[in-house]
Amino acid sequence: MVGRRRLFMVELGLNGWNEVGQQLLSQLKCDDFLKISQVNSDLFEGALPGVTVTHERNAADIPWEVEQVVELGGLPATLCQGHLHGRVRRVLLAGPSTDDTLGTPVIMGVNHLQCDDAAPMLYTSSAETNGIALLIKVLNDEWGIQSAMFHVVRTLEDGEFGSFISDAGRVIPQLFPELRGRMDGDAFIVPGNRLSSVILNVQLHSQTTAYDVRHSLHRYADGPLCGWMFCVDDSEKIHAAWSEGHSTIVDASAVRVVNGDTVQLVAWVDAPAALASRIIAILKL
Questions:
Q1: What is the pTM of this model?
Q2: Interacting residues of 130 by C-beta distance below 8 A, sequence separation 6+
Q3: Is 25 helix (H, G, I), strand (E, B) or coil?
Q4: How far apart are CA 260 and CA 84, in angstroms?
Q5: How many domains does one find in the chain?
């Protein structure tokens, strides 16, 4: 986990409650520096020792007694400004945002070292975008990318299905300006478990082989992207990496290279666990 060592506990408040909130609660159980002290949501049921539960609808009316707030309810940035009162010094939006005033989202492994940790508001972008950004980084660092197309399939247990707009096509060119106008993609929701799949097709500037791509994926997963990217050589081992909070789980056995410059990658994202892990990492910057 990237972050500076702290000498005191930082209290967190969650506005909203969903699977990401459950994952945050689970991942922070034994954490020495971050503690969930308050949850504001009508969906939260039960009681937790040391956690205050409130039920205010307007951000400005929530009686926060915490230092940092994680917005899980999908409020736009303009309304999230209401969280910044009392002791609250920073708000982290968990998910995409189209508010240009927030700048570029913080993507661990890509731009987190340039993050302004004193900014009053930050955002994470979607779990799938975090995963795609790491795949793009490896290929762009090693060979350069001429163009890219991605497909995201998100699975939900409630049976909902259809298409949705992924923010990856908008966010990733912000991270890699050389891809502006040369990257696009689509996203779909299908019935199933909570895992998302990502298929990324890119045309490279230089020639490569499937062996070299697999080698680079492993090298980055074991090196500069360790903790964010997990790489397996057997698709049956993907299940073993679920719920561990990686931004992306890459199936190296599925790497395909055509004509030496067209590459296809297949990766998986456990969205709630991955997003919760990214939130914790950003809060510790």
A1: 0.92
A2: 107, 108, 124, 228, 247, 248, 269, 274, 275, 278
A3: helix
A4: 52
A5: 2
Q: Do 167 and 251 lie in a common domain?
A: yes
Q: Give residue for tokens 């986990």.
A: 1
pLDDT of residue 2: 43
Please tell me whether residues 116 and 137 are part of one structural domain.
no
Residues 84 and 107 in one domain: yes
How far is the C-alpha of 203 from the C-alpha of 131, rounded, in Å?
A: 19
CB-CB contact of 94 with 70 (8 Å) = yes
Residue 277 CB contacts under 8 Å (≥ 6 apart), including other chains: 23, 27, 245, 246, 247
Summarised one tens digit per residue, pLDDT across range 109-158 is: 999 999 887 899 999 999 999 999 999 999 999 999 999 999 999 887 66
pLDDT tens for 168-178 read 999 999 999 99
Pairing of strands 90-93, 68-71: parallel
* β pairing state of 10-15 and 34-40: parallel
| Tokens matching residue 210 | 């499937």
User: Which residue intervals of the chain are DSSP H helices?
Assistant: 19-27, 77-80, 127-142, 168-175, 210-222, 271-283
Q: What is the CATH number of the domain that holds 107?
A: 3.40.50.720
List the one residue out of 198, 195, 219 whose CA is nearest residue 139. 219
> Contact, 143 vs 208, CB < 8 A?
yes
pLDDT in tens, 55-95: 999 999 999 999 999 999 999 999 999 999 999 999 999 99
Task: Please check whether residue 141 is in contact with residue 74, taking contact to mean a CB–CB distance below 8 angstroms.
Answer: no
Asked if 186 and 141 count as a contact pair (C-beta separation under 8 A), the reply is no
In 167-183, which positions are buried (b, 16+ CB within 10 angstroms) versus exposed (e)? bbbebbbbbbeebeeeb
Question: Is residue 24 a part of any domain in this protein?
Answer: yes
Sign of the four-CA dihedral 242, 97, 28, 16: negative
